[in-house]
Design goal:
By secondary structure, this protein is of the alpha/beta class. The chain contains 18 helices and 13 strands. It has a 6-stranded parallel β-sheet, sandwiched between helices. It has a 4-stranded antiparallel β-sheet with strand order 2-1-10-9.
């Protein structure tokens, strides 16, 4: 074989793979020359098909890290977003869909895995964070651990609260306390909206976004259908945050693979003014959301979503690009809140449930057992009273063994 033949970077059967890789990287916003793609796939002499090539995750990451984005994220906007505004893709007309969350709060994204739900939420949040330093984001994911949004976590004001049931329930309680405090202050100052509060107070108050991935799992976790009408329960607090939060700068975005009435309760839908239906393997989901045109979305149309009577397209933005642009922001800046302290933020980020419990008063623990957890609350109360507390397994009941001055007592929790 001649030296010229040996210099061929990939074999002929990989030509199509190279072209499609180049196209994919360009769609992600990277300026890629054909030679760059050859460099990556020169190692893949045994690759016979596109799916096998995509599986070479390490090589894709190495390639992406070499190229600069062709545009910066804010170039997607004509001007930075205002405090209440949220970017939610591009409409059929070519205009950006910008929604005022103080008027039309909340957004819900439904569709199958791999259709672009998390990418769309992530891009919208990144644009919001780049537009304003007055944004605080909590990301909840009880299944995957919020791994889809790692590119946002370099900022202290983006806090993942994941998988641990106690921590997620605690977050709903903390946000409800913040909402209660804002309601009281607004009433005392005789204002109705956060913008009016800021005008009178002459200082900014942080806008809070609660992002709930795998929304259906949270609905099941808090036993929403059974406990939504039980005052103080996590289900009640979730509904209240959606219903009341808009005027106080607390907004919720959710996503789910399913959108049936069991997974996306009808009593919660009014809290989400913007509904997005991505491609779904279950036609019933698009019907439940009143977005029948979602069934026409093709598998390769990642980031395309049914919205109202038409469609919107979210840009394909890589996590590398988002992470790179967010590095220009002040990593440690935290927006002002009324009840959430730096210690609370730290404990949430470090998954320190014990510290969060210890910051509550006995009165708060007694009145919030339903949402914080009966067992956790009683343990903390007995411990503060000087008892040594241990768990005891006993069939389907929960027993606490408490001991003080060598006297042991069993407490049964039904």
């Amino acid at each position: 074989m001649s030296s010229k033949d040996q210099s061929k970077p990939v074999s002929n059967h990989n030509q199509e793979i190279v072209k499609r890789t180049q196209k994919t990287l360009k769609e992600l916003g990277y300026d890629v020359k054909l030679s760059h793609v050859y460099e990556t796939f020169s190692k893949l002499s045994g690759v016979k098909d596109w799916n096998a090539a995509k599986a070479m995750n390490k090589d894709f990451k190495e390639t992406l890290s070499k190229f600069e984005p062709t545009t910066d994220l804010l170039s997607l906007l004509k001007e930075p977003l205002k405090e209440e505004e949220m970017y939610l893709g591009m409409k059929d007309s070519g205009e950006n869909l910008i929604t005022d969350f103080s008027i039309n709060p909340g957004a819900f994204f439904a569709g199958s895995t791999g259709t672009g739900k998390s990418m769309s939420i992530r891009t919208s949040l990144a644009l919001k964070l780049l537009s304003s330093d007055n944004v605080l984001v909590f990301i909840v994911d009880a299944l995957k651990g919020a791994m889809d949004h790692k590119s946002l976590y370099s900022l202290d004001r983006v806090i993942p609260v994941v998988q641990d049931m106690n921590m997620i329930v605690m977050l709903l309680d903390l946000l409800s306390r913040e909402l209660d405090k804002r309601q009281k202050e607004f009433k005392d100052m005789q204002v109705n909206k956060i913008s009016e509060y800021e005008l009178v107070k002459k200082e900014k108050l942080g806008r809070i976004f609660l992002v709930i991935e795998e929304f259906h799992s949270l609905v099941n976790m808090v036993q929403y259908h059974m406990k939504v009408d039980t005052f103080g329960s996590s289900a009640y607090k979730l509904k209240n945050l959606l219903r009341v939060g808009r005027n106080y700068g607390i907004w919720i975005m959710g996503s789910s693979q399913r959108a049936t009435s069991d997974d996306f309760p009808s009593s919660l839908k009014p809290g989400f003014s913007s509904l997005f239906g991505f491609r779904s393997i279950n036609p019933g989901d698009s019907t439940a959301m009143n977005l029948p045109q979602a069934v026409d979305i093709l598998s390769e149309e990642v980031g395309k979503s049914a919205f109202e009577k038409g469609f919107v397209q979210f840009p394909k933005v890589s996590e590398i690009q988002i992470e790179k642009e967010l590095k220009a922001l002040d990593k440690h800046h935290m927006p002002k809140t009324l009840t959430l302290t730096k210690e609370v933020f730290k404990d949430l980020k470090e998954n320190n449930f014990t510290n969060l419990l210890q910051e509550k008063s006995i009165k708060e623990l007694m009145s919030n057992m339903e949402s914080v957890g009966v067992v956790s609350s009683l343990k903390e109360i007995f411990t503060r009273a000087g008892y040594t507390v241990k768990d005891v397994d006993f069939k389907y009941q929960m027993l606490l063994s408490i001991e003080k001055d060598k006297q042991k007592t069993l407490v049964m929790i039904r």
